């Protein structure tokens, strides 16, 4: 696809390296320009005792995370699954850094910008007059909120309650992910996020042929429909190759990101792609 940001693009004559590497066709750009992570599906028209194709909130589980030397003092999420915050009330979990990095990569694909420059732009943006962020939302935000199989309900009351909970979760996620990063993430996490984005930017071109080798044909034929999935691959591959985080941790984190923000078989496919990537990378190392 000519001009696409994804790892299937052909060379461009553009004078700006990143305008080519991080851009989409104008028709897709107009469609996605104001989009964020995929929203939950709208309320379906159903009969009672019908299987609803809505995300099922899975049981929360702790995540064992590790960072490189600079991030060694940051641990994972607590046992209740809620994000860890530091004494200033900001996220201090490495998972939050990876989520933030993914959102920046995704936006850079749509806007045609280098992700590091886009991150710095977001960091330096002025807040709107009167804007206030409710930090209590950080305690309600759940990094382990995964989708699941269809949910079966018996009554309209159960359906309405389920949809209401989904809408509440979606509103919290939207508010947190759209807030100025300095209000949401600790300084340590923001530094880690920038390191992730620098690694992605540095390795983007070299990872394109690698990704082309490991992704399934249907992803190659419709890359614009797999922006998030391909962004997760770039993020994980760059962290393994550049930051020396243990590959088991990175792959688990990438699969969890896919469970949160992607559909269908994406978590399984991403898991397989990254394991293939690491097996081929290991002899070189």
UniProtKB/TrEMBL annotation:
Residues 69-90 are annotated as: Disordered. Residues 209-279 form the NusB/RsmB/TIM44 domain. Pfam families: NusB. GO terms for cellular component: chloroplast. One of its GO terms (molecular function) is mRNA binding. GO terms for biological process: DNA-templated transcription termination; transcription antitermination. SUPFAM superfamilies: NusB-like. The keyword Transmembrane does not apply. Keywords: RNA-binding, Transcription, Transcription antitermination, Transcription regulation. The keyword RNA-binding applies. It comes from the Eukaryota. InterPro entries: NusB-like_sf, NusB_fam, NusB_RsmB_TIM44. Belongs to the NusB family. This is NusB/RsmB/TIM44 domain-containing protein.
